[in-house]
Amino acid sequence: MHIDSELYQRILGEELRKLRRRRGWTRKELNQHLQSDISLQTLATYELGTRQCSVVRLVELCLAMDELPADLLARVHQRVFNDEPGKVRLDLARVVEDGQPELLSLRRWAEDRLRQPGSPREIQLDLPAVERMAELCGVSPGDLVAKLKALEGG
Question: In this structure, what DSSP letter does residue 49 have?
Fold first, then answer.
């Protein structure tokens, strides 16, 4: 199995950022809960996936945010290795937060999905689902995929 280290770092950074934001913390507030002295720039580069994080540092970050490192790494592994080819990842919460008027139908659908008990925050859409959603939003499937990928990177 080939490991795309850049992708892995980026996904790890996204998961760290999600954890911090779920707590409602700024990077400065996270830094105050850490045992080590880490610059805010270093925290930012971890979250952007542009700097590798040592195992000890990763454990420290996770524990500061009341997260088991194994749980965080399991989510990263799932995202990196278990995406199905030909499917588009959709972070429902990001869709709900987005204000693009042309995605209103998709936003309403995502809000409904997130209200359902046990519904995952992230899903994967196959091509027929993307085509149907694009039609509801009044955009081409290619435009919809581009908008969704921009949300994922945002």
Answer: T
